[in-house]
Amino acid sequence: MRIIYSIKTALKALLIHRSRSALTILGIVIGITAIMLIASVGKGAQNLILGKIQGLGANVIVVVPGKEPKGPTDPSIMESILSDSLKMRDLKSLEKKSNVPTASDIIPVVFGVKSISYKGNTFRPTILGSSEQISKLFKLRPIHGSFFANDDVAGKASVVIIGSKVKNELFGASDAVGEKIRINKKNFRVIGVLPKKGQILFINFDESIVMPYTTAQEYIFGIKYLNRIIVQSNTVNNLPKTVYDIKSTLRENHNITNHDDDDFFVMTQEQIANAMKTVTETLTFFLAAVAAIALLVGGIGIMNIMLVSITERTKEIGLRKALGATNERILMQFLLESMALTTIGGLIGIFIGTLLSLVTASILTLVMHIDWAFSFPVSAALIGLIVSTIIGLVFGIYPARKAARKDPAQSLVYE
To answer: Per DSSP, what are the bridge partners of residue 186?
Structure first.
C-alpha cells in the first residue's frame, strides 16, 4: 500500500506542474521518437532490399573479383571493386558445359559511372554492360522499344536501354526510342526504356543505362576484364555443385592450388541477403546510437529540473518529515517522480515515432513508387521504454537523495 500511495503522490506532484513536466520530458520524447523512426525505416529498407534479392531466385550465384572481405570495414571491399582478376577467358571457361554442367545461364557484367548528354541535357548514370540474358534475370522488360539481342553483343552494337529517371532527365515527356545520346564522344541509339525498377543487388536500374557488355568494354571503359559474372544453377538442389564447379574452373584458370590464394569469391543469394542485412543493421545501429544522445541530454535535463523542484518544495519535505515520513519514503517519492516522467516520455515517444514511421512509409510508397511496407519495431519500442525508465532512475537518484537528506527543522523555516 505504501508504494501505491507513493506513486499517487508522485503523479499528483507532476500534474500540478504540467508545463514544467512536459518540457522536462521533451528530450526523452525526441530521443525515443528518433530511435523508433530510425529502427522502423531501417527495417523497411531491409525488407525491401531482401525482398528484391529473394525475388531473383535461390539459384543465383555471383562471382566477384578480388579477395573475399572478412567484414564491412575490410580493405578487400575496395580491392574487389578495382580488381581485374575475372578475365574473358574465365567467362569462356564457365560457358563450357563440360566445366559447369549444372549452370543454366552465364551472365557477364561490367559497370561504372559516366556522364551522358542529349541536346545540352546531361546526366551521370551507372553504365551496365551485360548480355541479353540479364533481361530475364532482372525482368528488364522495356515499356517502350525492345531489349538488345545476342547479335548486338557479338557485333558491339552502339545501342542502349535507359532507366526511367535517365529518360525523364534527358528527354522529359518526349519519346526517347530512336534518339541518340552521347557517351565518351560517341553516339548511342536508344532502343528501349525501362519501367521503374529501383535498386536490385548492386544496380539502381532507374538511374542506369544497359548496353551490350562488349560495347561497354570497347567504347566506354576500355577494359578487357569483367566486374561480375552471374551464374544461374539449373536447380536449387544443384547449387552447391554449381558453386564447386565454378571455383574449380576459376582456380584452374588462375593456377591457384591453395584456396587462401583465391583472387575471386562466390556469393549465393543467401550470402548476398545476409551481407545486405548486416549492412542495414549496422547502419541502423549507428544512427540509433546518435539518436540516443538525445536521451542522455534528456536525462541531464530531468536531473536539473528535479533539483529545482526539490528546492521549491523544501517546506513540503520538512512538513512530511515532521509528520513521520522517513528518508526512505522521501527518496522513494522523488525517484518515482523521476521515473514516471521518463516512462511517460518514453510512451509518448513510441506513439509519435510509430505515427511518423507510418507516415514516412506512406510517403516513400507514393513518391518513390516502391512497395515500402510499414514495420513496427517491437524490440526498439521495448528497449526504448526500458531505457527511458532506467534514465529516470539513474538521473533521479542524486536529486532524490538530496531531498531525503534535508533537515526537517531547517526545511520548515526555509524561505
So the answer is: 183
Give yes or no for a contact between 89 and 70, defined as CB atoms under 8 angstroms apart: no
Instruction: Answer whether residue 277 is part of any domain.
Output: no
Quote the CA–CA distance of 63 and 228 in Å, as a whole number: 6
Residue 71 falls inside a structural domain:
no
Q: What is the DSSP string of 67-106?
A: PPPSSTT-THHHHHHH----BHHHHHHHHSTTTSTTEEEE
Q: List Cβ neighbours of 58 (8 Å cut-off, separation of 6 or more).
A: 236, 239, 268, 269, 270
Kindly state the cell numbers that stand for 72. Answer: 564491412
Say if residue 26 is in the same domain as residue 127. no
Tell me the C-alpha distance between 357 and 6, whole Å.
36
CA 271, distance to chain mean position in Å, is 17
- pTM of the predicted model, to two decimals? 0.62
Question: Mean pLDDT of residues grouped by 10 in the chain (415 residues)?
Answer: 56 63 78 86 75 66 83 56 85 94 93 92 94 90 93 95 94 90 94 86 85 96 93 86 93 89 83 68 74 77 78 74 76 81 88 90 76 81 86 85 75 58
Cβ neighbour number for residue 205 with a 10 Å cutoff: 25
Domain with 207 in it: 84-262
Residue 215 bridge partners (DSSP):
none
Please give the angle made by the CA atoms of 117, 228 and 130, to the nearest 5 degrees: 50
64 within a domain of the structure (yes/no): no
Other C-beta atoms closer than 10 Å to the C-beta of 2 total: 9
Q: Which residue has the cell 518540457?
A: 23
Per-residue exposure over 215-229, b if at least 16 CB sit within 10 Å of its own CB, e if not: bbbbbbbeeebbbbb
Asked whether residue 228 falls in the same domain as residue 297, the answer is no
